[in-house]
């Protein structure tokens, strides 16, 4: 990327649409507006203008909003053209911009990357913005807002300031131990705060599992013997036909998945092949894949159409709950007692579906009363936090003051890498490639 270029791109959704937003950013923005619209509008004021080519041909009429730098999203001179969202209109305006000297089409995430390079956002805020754009549930939106608005960055910056103060005290003792105004063992006064800081970081890391559930969804696997009603339940919960349903045992040969929103959380439902011994090659592969998915589940729905069918000896993760679901209860030939299952339902009549949903909601994280969702939602955040915690532990247990100071420097660098303050060049291409072109 050449950060001296002026860039442009469609920043709104897919075409056609009622309105399309074309964003321009860079030093040649004002000149491009003048050539397109005839005059530069007042800053931060929506102005209705006729948009023309360099030859005076009318392309469209739309709103033009000019944001002089540094008071813009990217920190550079920016402009947004709000035009009619027809494909021909948008392509004509983009073609006109392509004909201006010094302008080029933006690459994926380049507007956000410029905002980062110009100090308008840090990496946590950038990643939060990417998550906000793709958020599909209320909890995903809340988690993304916490990051994109700077709430989580403020937490990390507060920790960084505590580390900086501690390092300054230790360096003062190392460099000016003979000075009368620097008392001996000044470093001793900050160790208790560093112990508390490490405990705060460890408690923060412990919330990574909850953040993963919010961001990636609670993984629920529907398992059981062949013909237990797994595919019928998946279709009933999804409210559409996802899986093929027949009376033939072994119909499902592969893992099918569907995303749902439940109580504001994202839930991923997996329909798996019926678990049994078989010599049929394709079905055996389906069972192998089913067991692989089961091994990564957050919750198991174990289905059976008969009271003695809840046989379960599959390996699952630690503390993964298994809910016994009695199916096909509309059939009179099967008699169940209340203690034989946790939920009783019939996908044919719909009875018991609401009870199952209530049971699933009870296994979702309880976030009642929480005003903040500041928690590490990405693996790189967790890795850096663990590195900072480990360095703090080594600093607390080391004997030499110079070794302690070095470990605190490493801890500070690890925190800095989360927000992008130090040593992040190798991360930038990966992070910003996740964005759409116009962002």
Helix proportion:
40-55%
Element-by-element helix/strand order = EEHEEEHEHHHHHHEHEEHEEEHHHH
Please state how the strands of the largest beta sheet are arranged side by side: 3-4-5-2-1-6
Q: How many separate domains make up the residues?
A: 3
- Proportion of residues in β-strands: 15-25%
Number of helices: 14
Q: Mind telling me which CATH architecture of the largest domain this is? A: 3-Layer(aba) Sandwich
The CATH topology of the largest domain turns out to be Rossmann fold
Largest β sheet strand count, sense and barrel closure: 6 strands, mixed
Q: Give the terminus-to-terminus CA distance.
A: 15 Å
Radius of gyration, taken over Cα atoms and rounded to an integer in Å: 29 Å
Mean pLDDT: 84
CATH superfamily of the largest domain: P-loop containing nucleotide triphosphate hydrolases
CATH C-level class of the largest domain is: Alpha Beta
Per the principal axes of the C-alpha atoms, what is the gross shape?
A: flat
Label the structural class.
alpha/beta
Low-pLDDT segments: 243-253
Q: How many strand segments?
A: 12
């Amino acid at each position: 990327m050449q950060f001296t270029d002026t860039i442009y791109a469609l920043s709104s959704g897919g075409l056609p649409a009622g309105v399309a937003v074309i964003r321009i950013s860079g030093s040649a923005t004002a000149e491009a507006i003048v050539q397109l619209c005839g005059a530069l509008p007042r800053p931060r004021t929506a102005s209705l203008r006729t948009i023309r080519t360099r030859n005076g041909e009318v392309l469209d009429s739309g709103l033009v909003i000019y944001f002089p730098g540094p008071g813009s999203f990217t920190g550079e001179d920016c402009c947004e053209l709000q035009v009619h969202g027809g494909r021909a209109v948008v392509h004509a305006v983009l073609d006109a911009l392509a004909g201006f000297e010094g302008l080029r089409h933006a690459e994926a995430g380049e507007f956000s990357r410029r905002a980062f390079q110009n100090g308008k956002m840090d990496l946590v805020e950038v990643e939060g913005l990417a998550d906000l754009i793709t958020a599909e549930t209320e909890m995903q939106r809340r988690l993304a807002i916490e990051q994109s608005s700077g709430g989580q960055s403020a937490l990390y910056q507060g920790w960084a300031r505590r580390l900086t103060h501690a390092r300054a005290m230790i360096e003062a003792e190392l460099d000016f131990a003979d000075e009368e105004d620097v008392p001996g063992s000044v470093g001793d006064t900050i160790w208790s705060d560093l112990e508390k800081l490490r405990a705060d970081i460890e408690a923060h890391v412990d919330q990574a599992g909850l953040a993963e559930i919010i961001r990636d969804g609670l993984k629920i696997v529907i398992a059981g013997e062949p013909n237990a009603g797994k595919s019928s339940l998946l279709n009933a919960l999804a409210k559409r036909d996802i899986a093929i349903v027949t009376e033939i045992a072994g119909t499902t040969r592969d893992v099918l998945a569907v995303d749902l929103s439940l109580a504001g959380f994202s839930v991923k439902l997996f329909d798996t092949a019926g678990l049994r011994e078989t010599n049929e090659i394709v079905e055996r592969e389906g069972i192998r894949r089913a067991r692989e998915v089961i091994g990564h589940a957050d919750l198991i729905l174990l289905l059976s159409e008969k009271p003695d069918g809840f046989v379960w000896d599959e390996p699952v993760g630690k503390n993964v709950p298994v809910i016994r679901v009695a199916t096909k209860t509309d059939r009179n030939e099967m008699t169940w007692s209340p203690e034989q299952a946790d939920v009783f339902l019939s996908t044919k009549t719909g009875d018991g579906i609401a009870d199952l949903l209530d049971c699933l909601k009870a296994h979702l994280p309880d976030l009642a009363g929480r005003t903040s969702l500041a928690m590490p939602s990405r693996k790189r955040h967790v890795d850096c936090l663990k590195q900072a915690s480990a360095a703090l532990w080594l600093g607390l247990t080391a004997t030499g003051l110079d070794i302690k100071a070095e470990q605190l420097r490493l801890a500070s660098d690890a925190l800095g890498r989360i927000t992008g303050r130090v040593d992040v060049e190798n991360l930038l291409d990966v992070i910003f490639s996740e964005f759409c072109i116009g962002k």
